[in-house]
TrEMBL record:
GO molecular function, one term: phosphatase activity
UniProt KW keywords: Hydrolase
Protein name: HAD-IIA family hydrolase
Key word Aminoacyl-tRNA synthetase present: no
Domain of life: Bacteria
Any one GO CC term of the record: cytoplasm
Species for this entry: Demequina lignilytica
Amino acid sequence: MTASDLLGTDVPLQEAFDVALVDLDGVAYKGAHAIPGAAEGLAAARTAGMGVLFVTNNASREPETVADHLTDLGIPCAPQEVMTAAQAGAELLTDHVPAGAAVLVVGGAGLRTAVAAKGYRLVEHADDQPAAVIQGFAPELGWAQLAEATYAIRAGARFFATNLDLTLPTERGFAPGNGSLVAAVRTATGVDPLSAGKPEPAMFHLAARKAGAERPMMIGDRLDTDLRGARAAGMPGLLVLTGVSQVNDALAAPREERPAFIGRDLGCLAEVHPAPELADHWWHVGDARARATEGQLVVDGGSPLDRVRAACAATWEAIDAGARVSFETLPHLG
């Protein structure tokens, strides 16, 4: 695919899609602060009739806590508008472990509540002979909990993870995420867990069903989780440049992680997104154009964001044709 990897709309995104599945960290907020423009962008989308469901790989907090946090940041949210990786992980358990079985939960209150709600008996130690271990992020996790998980898995318990994000954004930068902590247990046991969170498509399908969406769109800041999962689930994904993945990451993205749309922040929901068009060996978006020639990406004209879109179309076409494209020395595009 070339032009169809990056799509276009004749109307604003908030009119083209009925529900936005919105990631939290790096999209709605970063740490204790809302990302600039997030509250206004989501409020405008709701006013235009777009539904919103927040989808997060964070499994440590209850949906009610997440909703309260968003509301405090000026983004009104009800608990039923939140789907956490804890809820997805508990749902995954039901496919493999009978209700009523003992489960060792390595994680926070959100995961414990979600697993208990599915009818499982929560235990604290490997000596309780759990049928399964499910691991989710919680900042208070330490060696003792990881050791209990290791003992239980080595004794035969099934291993599940809410998500495998290696990092998570904080106000001070990127810190170890659940995937990094899961890696410690994986290394100690030699067992790979079944994962429920993004980028697994099940979480996206569950969220869309919960929201009653007919034309859902995923909004995220990470190509490897949000956008990869959207593609796997067969729904368009919007990359916003407010978190982890930035312009050069999008240019280098493999096909399975490419966004369908790119925006600076959530304010882009109120904008029309022009589709790249190929003419005379140049990819055009508005007044911007780009081409990859002799291994170099050339971009000029138009707005910064349209240059980004044109650059993605040109780079992806060249990469898919087997060419190597250098763009590390490009001027700032976004």
